[in-house]
Write a structure and sequence with these properties.
The protein is an alpha/beta fold and 340 residues long. The chain contains 8 helices and 11 strands. The structure holds copper (II) ion. Copper (II) ion binds next to loops. The site of copper (II) ion has 7 residues, from loops.
Length: 340
């Protein structure tokens, strides 16, 4: 080809750059990989994920594109047995491809910290607002207590001593206001138990009203579990002896899965329940219904010592809501015995 007819390389590079940018932005916005957003925290995570998808797509196209072009352009041609041109280093190019990833990584790092802060990942009590210890960090917990003692203590015992609690607490906007609803969450092998200290309700499913600022105080009785609601983009470990919190606002009514995201034992895969976001009216109705139902046998429930019960006896009140019947429990037990 004549030298004058060639398209300049810089023009080709520019065009490729524009195409790669457009495709990357499109993929970043339309990947459809995330489930629906059901909390105020979800869009923050999704925006960050979209940025990473955009950068990832651009890197993929540039790297794979360079390989494909090189494979075609510099392929071995018949009868050409000469050596390739010797190339020894290219300092500007090396500086360029070191600097670009460094800038990307530092940028993503700063952005992720920003998202973490906006979601309430930093303890507000350690910040400049030392004077206001909102009551959400004052719920007392007895980490070393047994199940019955711990759950009763959560409902009755409060202390004014501020305590550092890990997890996603109040966001910078809500750090001076207490949560609308506090629920004590206990992870045990292999179930989540929910205790509403205000109404005394014990449940196997988590009900929260739409739009309420909900605070979960998360504890573990045996091993590490992890409380995860994918549609809320929230996940918090339940750690024995170290309570954690998770504060969120649900933005969409519906039923969402609660999954244990930490391998916690033989039936870890079955450690699932539901988070039900009700309208405020439906939530009040649920509270009223459960208060009446549970008031009748509360004395008996408190007197019980779970250590004297077999696993199936202890879990019986929860298995109904979890959709596990006695037959299934017996079968699981039989299979477990057969394994040993
Ligand atoms: Cu678990």
């Amino acid at each position: 080809m004549d030298e004058k007819e060639k398209i300049p390389v810089s023009l080709l590079t520019l065009t490729a750059g524009i195409v790669v940018t457009l495709v990357s932005f499109w993929v970043g916005q339309n990947h459809g990989l995330m489930p629906e957003q059901a909390s105020q925290q979800a869009p923050l995570v999704d925006k960050f994920f979209s940025v990473m998808m955009t950068i990832g797509t651009a890197l993929f196209l540039v790297v794979e594109g360079a390989i494909v072009i090189a494979v075609i352009r510099f392929r071995h041609r018949k009868g050409d047995d000469t050596d390739a041109a010797p190339i020894i280093g290219n300092l500007p190019l090396e500086a360029f491809w070191t600097a670009i990833p460094a800038i990307i990584v530092i940028g993503l790092g700063i952005y992720s910290v920003e998202v973490y802060r906006d979601m309430g990942g930093f303890d507000p009590a350690t910040g400049h607002t030392m004077a206001h210890h909102h009551p959400t960090v004052q719920v007392a917990y007895l980490p070393e207590s047994n199940l019955s003692g711990g759950l009763i203590a959560q409902t009755e015992n409060t202390t004014t001593e501020p305590k550092k609690i890990y997890g996603f607490g109040a966001t910078p906007d809500t750090e001076t206001t207490p949560a609308d609803l506090v629920v004590n969450v206990t992870g045990i092998q292999f179930a989540w138990l929910f205790n509403y200290p205000e109404s005394g309700i014990m449940a196997g499913e988590l009900h929260v009203p739409l739009g309420a600022d909900v605070q979960l105080n998360i504890a573990a009785q045996d091993v590490i579990h992890s409380f995860w609601v994918p549609q809320f983009r929230l996940k918090q470990d339940a750690i024995p002896g170290q309570n954690t919190e998770l504060r969120f606002v649900a933005t969409k009514t519906g039923t969402y899965p609660i999954v244990c995201a930490e391998l916690c034992g033989g039936y870890h895969g079955a450690m699932r329940t539901q988070l039900i976001v009700d309208t405020p009216e439906a939530y009040q109705a649920w509270v009223a219904e459960n208060q009446i139902a549970q008031a009748e046998n509360r004395d008996r429930a408190i007197a019980l010592n779970p250590h004297n019960l077999s696993v199936s006896e202890f879990l019986a009140p929860y298995t109904e809501t979890l959709g596990i019947n006695q037959h299934a429990l017996a079968q699981i037990k039989a299979e477990a015995i057969a394994q040993f």
